[in-house]
Write a structure and sequence with these properties.
Elements lengths: L1 H7 L4 E5 L2 E4 H17 L7 E5 L4 H12 L3 E4 L6 H11 L3 E4 L4 H6 L9 E4 L13 E4 L20 E7 L7 E6 H14 L7 E3 L11 H10 L3 E3 L6 H11 L3 E3 L4 H6 L14 E4 L4 H6 L4 E4 L1 E3 L3 E5 L13 E2 L4 E6 L12 E7 L8 E2 L3 H7 L5 E9 L5 E6 L3 E4 L2 E4 H8 L5 E10 L5 E9 L7 H11 L8 E5 L12 H7 L5 E3 H9 L1
Parallel strand pairs: 1-11, 3-4, 3-5, 5-6, 6-7, 10-11, 10-12, 12-13, 13-14, 26-27
Antiparallel strand pairs: 1-2, 8-9, 9-20, 15-16, 16-17, 18-19, 19-21, 21-22, 23-24, 25-26, 27-28
Helix pairs in contact: 1-2, 2-3, 6-7
Length: 518
């Protein structure tokens, strides 16, 4: 796709970041240089290269360069450290990591758990003072000495393109092995539902490139349609509309929490005259469309493993509460009960998906055959989400069947958070559940059982969390108890903990911080 766009519009602007711009031809040459550079580092087709960077042009050059070289890229959440970072890099068997200097220390901290890692490709020199031991360490800028001619490496549509990790729910997070065809189909379906035309201007909204929303649903559709893509480091509600106006954006990307946040911004005189016509999210908001006249929210449902399962085509009236119509060109969808019997229309059940074409979904959970077989049982992929269908093929998301949570736009595994908490020497066991957040997603509550004879405070636990887990994992609430509610076979009854909410001896981290600041 990149090569085709570069041949079609070599001098047209494509990528924008911090006031700088790159044409399609320039990005194509940068990606080719990175692909050649990998060869000098003895990284070959089929090897895995992790990208551990904040949003930046280097992220895109590395990703597209990996695709040219038929190297499998592994996007890593920039919040990750410790156990979760070691698990994902180790499970993916990465040979090299493209890394920001500020993250080098995190890699070196888990180096002894990464037997396949050989090389760090560092985009700046911030981590140069750290001892890398036997690792080969090179500068990303060294690729400039490589040729910018196109790379001649055979790439088939069924070849692996990425290992994209999803949140673990009943166990550690799983790496979805995505063929090239999966990513391309994701992009084609997105471009089709948004009715993208050549020369659109797509605003990234600060969505991280390690998410498929920003990459496969954002940048790849820009390549397909020879459109411009404005990359941001992070989301800013106050800068959103000024940047949309100055860029002339016609399309924006976002999670469902963004429209309510933008609605809280002070009214502007040009609210009803925005050029933005399409905003792809996962939930409809009539008030948003009314205030920003002409801007249409396009709802979709899908997962990293599947792609766009449902779509709301641009130009069709939305169905309130629906996440769109089933994408019948690509998928079959069934709502089933716990025994995989199809549910009647309007009855909630688990959303299951089956592709109509080969290689348009993930191939497997990498190095996890048991989990792969369980997900694809009875020849349908089980999403772990609950939904229902109406007579016209529109789907309605109900809730998450799995014990997963969502916070700040991130899917979170209670299992992985509990694993970290249980490492504390004073903790006997714990349970982490979601409680309602005033911002529309989940806040996290940890119920902690302290070992007999041990003592620990809320503040000490939060300090431990800060050192050992990403910020968005840190539970807002901590409650100490004598025991957890369990079934006779010792399974924790989390629904009881959820139903109890934040009552009782529950400490609120945000309220505590506010009182200290006051």
């Amino acid at each position: 796709m990149l090569r085709a766009a570069a041949l079609r519009r070599p001098d047209a602007p494509f990528l924008h970041f911090r006031g700088a711009s790159w044409t399609f031809g320039e990005v194509d040459r940068k990606a080719s240089q990175f692909a050649h550079f990998l060869g000098t580092l003895n990284v070959r087709a089929g090897d895995k290269v992790a990208i551990f960077l904040p949003n930046a042009p280097e992220w895109i050059f590395a990703w597209l360069g990996c695709a040219k070289a038929n190297v499998i890229y592994v996007p890593i959440n920039t919040e990750y450290n410790g156990d979760i970072l070691a698990h994902q890099l180790g499970k993916a068997e990465v040979a090299a990591i493209v890394v920001a200097g500020e993250f080098v220390g995190r890699i070196l901290h888990v180096r002894d758990r990464l037997p396949t890692l050989r090389t760090l490709i560092e985009v700046d020199d911030e981590g140069q003072g750290l001892d890398g031991g036997d690792l080969v360490r090179v500068a990303f800028a060294d690729m400039d000495a490589s040729p910018d001619t196109d790379v001649v490496v055979p790439v088939a549509h069924y070849d692996p393109h990425a290992i994209a990790f999803t949140s673990g729910t009943t166990g550690p997070s799983k790496g979805a092995l995505a063929p090239h065809c999966h990513a391309v189909t994701f992009a084609l379906d997105t471009a089709r539902t948004m009715s993208l035309q050549e020369g659109e201007k797509i605003y990234n909204s600060g969505m991280p490139l390690f998410h498929s929303l920003a990459s496969w649903m954002g940048l790849l559709p820009a390549l397909i349609t020879c459109s411009e893509y404005m990359l941001l480091e992070k989301f800013s509600a106050s800068r959103f509309w000024p940047e949309v106006h100055s860029f002339g954006a016609t399309v924006a990307l976002g999670v469902f929490t963004l429209p309510p946040i933008l609605m809280k911004q002070p009214p502007r005189g040009d609210d009803g005259r925005v050029m933005l016509r399409r905003f792809i999210v996962t939930q409809h908001n009539e008030d948003f469309e009314r205030r920003y006249n002409g801007c249409r929210l396009l709802n979709t449902y899908g997962q990293t493993e599947t792609g766009c399962v449902t779509l709301t085509p641009y130009g069709e009236p939305p169905r309130p509460g629906s996440c769109g119509r089933v994408n019948e060109e690509t998928f079959e969808v069934r709502i089933v009960d716990d025994h995989d019997n199809e549910c009647p229309i309007g009855t909630p059940g688990e959303i299951t998906v089956r592709p109509k074409l080969p290689y348009v979904m993930m191939s497997e959970y990498y190095n996890m055959p048991a989990e792969t077989n369980a997900a694809f049982r009875n020849l349908w992929f089980h999403t772990g989400d609950r939904g229902k269908m109406d007579e016209d093929g529109y789907m309605y998301f109900v809730d998450r069947k799995k014990d997963a949570m969502r916070r700040r736009g991130e899917n979170i595994s209670s299992y992985e958070i509990e694993s970290v908490i249980n490492r504390h020497e004073a903790v006997l066991e714990c349970a982490v559940v979601a409680v309602p957040s005033p911002f529309g997603e989940d806040d996290l509550k940890a119920v902690v059982i302290v070992k007999p004879g041990e003592t620990i405070s809320h503040l000490e636990l939060w300090a431990f969390f800060e050192d050992n887990m990403p910020r968005f994992w840190i539970p807002r609430y901590i409650e100490f108890r004598d025991g957890l509610p369990k079934t006779p076979n010792q399974k924790v009854l989390k629904y009881q903990i959820r139903e109890q909410g934040i009552l009782g001896d529950c400490m609120d981290r945000e309220a505590l911080s506010a009182s200290i600041e006051a």
